[in-house]
Specification:
Specifically methylates the N3 position of the uracil ring of uridine 1498 (m3U1498) in 16S rRNA. Acts on the fully assembled 30S ribosomal subunit. By secondary structure, the chain is of the alpha/beta class. It contains six helices and twelve strands. The protein is about 30% helix and about 25% strand. The strands form two sheets. Strands 1, 2, 3, 4, 5 and 6 form a six-stranded mixed beta sheet that branches. It has a six-stranded parallel beta sheet with strand order 9-8-7-11-10-12, with helices on both faces. Helix 2 packs parallel to helix 3.
Length: about 240
């Protein structure tokens, strides 16, 4: 039986007896219904995996004995910051989930001219917590030991400024002949993805003025939730860790 990988925001150290945080404890005790003596693989975002044995298990409280940590080698040396325009329903969840699987470092939800999702106040906070939970679940599933941060929603001007530390900034735009495989290898990439209706001409111009390079992935127009997955897969293939083993 596969040993479950569980994220916890609790401190972990070898030989310690630790209580899992509420979300992790409920998942282990209520959903998985695990019992004392069973094994887990824990991670808390510090880059290590921690084997652990359950010492106490209930529906709301789980204690474990932590074993010897080992470094997790699943993180790519290529950092990718994703600026993803908000979309309705499960499409944003899909984009977040698959971006984590592709090795994204940070996800920035964006609002653009043709974006039909408006988030403010409590509604924004609720969606951010939901997307962070999606990211945690994806990290558990794909074997990562770091969970990408989902930051608060930004306007394009805020995104342009915040992504200034990336040495390559790209905006996906199907009406260009520039392709990824002609570019020099970067260390940190910012990817900007538009909404279902595409970015407006003014937004493309603003992105270019801010230092973003328009690139095309091919002759077909991709959906807003498909584009980041395809783009990151290509970035990891060209400059990251896909195909490097």
């Amino acid at each position: 039986m596969r040993i479950p990988r569980i994220y916890t925001d609790s401190p972990l150290s070898e030989g310690a007896t630790a209580g899992l945080d509420d979300n992790a404890a409920q998942h282990v005790g209520r959903v998985l219904r695990m019992q004392p003596g069973q094994e887990l693989l824990l991670f808390n975002g510090d880059g290590n995996d921690y084997p652990a044995t359950i010492t106490e298990a209930g529906k709301k409280h789980v204690s474990v004995e932590v074993g010897t940590p080992s470094a997790n080698a699943t993180e790519s040396h290529l950092e990718i910051v994703l600026g993803q325009t908000l979309s309705k329903g499960d499409r944003m969840d899909y984009a977040v989930q698959k971006a984590v699987e592709m090795g994204v470092t940070r996800i920035v939800p964006l609002t653009t001219e043709r974006c039909d999702v408006k988030l403010k106040g409590d509604r924004e906070d609720k969606r951010l917590r939901h997307w962070q939970a999606v990211a945690i679940s994806a990290a558990e599933q794909c074997g990562r030991a770091r969970v990408p941060e989902i930051v608060p929603v930004m306007t394009l001007s805020e995104w342009f400024e915040s992504s200034g530390d990336c040495d390559l900034r790209l905006v996906l735009h199907h009406r260009t002949e520039q392709s990824l495989n002609t570019l020099a290898k970067p260390a940190r990439v910012a990817l900007m993805i538009g909404p279902e209706g595409g970015l407006s001409p003014d937004e493309i111009t603003a992105a270019e003025t801010a230092g973003f390079l328009p690139v095309a992935l091919g002759p077909r127009v991709l959906r807003t939730e498909t584009a980041p997955v395809a783009a990151m897969a290509l970035c990891q293939w060209l400059w990251g860790d896909i195909g490097s083993q």
